[in-house]
Amino acid sequence: MSEREAIYTEGITALKGAFSTEWADAMREDIEAAFAEASSREGGAVGRGPKRYYVEIHPEQLRGFVDLVTHPWVVAVCTDVLGPQYEIVELGFDIPFAGAVNQPWHRDFPMPTVTRDEKRLNSLAFNLTGVDTTDDMGPFEIAPGTQFDDSPEFGHDMFPPRTHYDRYNKLAVRKYPQRGDISARSALTIHRGTANKSQKSRPVLVLGVDAPDATNADKHAMAVTRGYWESLPQLVKDHLHCPVVDELTPITQKHTIEGLVMGEA
């Protein structure tokens, strides 16, 4: 099965060992530094449930950004699923800390019209773990094959009602990525973070990529400085559609998901 086929059937695919553990450890250092900065100011980090946060960052805050977006597997998946004019629109991370609870089953945004009418996916989310995931750390849980689920009962077009939970609980697969692994999924595939019963945090990098007709860039605010832009390979410039500025401004988060704030009811 090709990666495109996996995304369209299961809603998720992955590559084991794409990067070294040392690369992943450096990524975690950058995430932790960015979280310390973001959590010190209003709007820097947003809650995605109790003891669970999301932060958006600029590419320059991640030393491995160019490595990630030029990785042959990432480029191939983006091209195959989204087309040759794909656009990198989001860089951020989720951190569930000790005490994080089960999230409600959800998708990350309402289903676009093109997906509902044409069954075409026009965005992808890549995830990379900062730790070797174990069962007590609140692993990511996904219900494969649910990226096209559609019901007027979905709250905000994102949250299935509890009457649908039995189906998702039966489909649920927990993922245990290790440092250096990459996954790619449709953010429409129904998923949730589970309860973190350990004493460790589980930071996960998020790279969001759109087809040209998607609009997720509206929710994000990444930028690059002129010097950084000039240092980028052409492959990155071709797909990184964001402002080029003289000085970076810390990001105030735009993409809040109100239904996740309280955790599972």
Automatic annotation (TrEMBL):
<dbReference type="Pfam" id="PF05721">
    <property type="entry name" value="PhyH"/>
</dbReference>
<keyword id="KW-0223">Dioxygenase</keyword>
<keyword id="KW-0560">Oxidoreductase</keyword>
<protein>
    <submittedName>
        <fullName>Phytanoyl-CoA dioxygenase family protein</fullName>
    </submittedName>
</protein>
<dbReference type="InterPro" id="IPR008775">
    <property type="entry name" value="Phytyl_CoA_dOase-like"/>
</dbReference>
<dbReference type="InterPro" id="IPR051961">
    <property type="entry name" value="Fungal_Metabolite_Diox"/>
</dbReference>
<dbReference type="GO" id="GO:0051213">
    <property type="term" value="F:dioxygenase activity"/>
</dbReference>
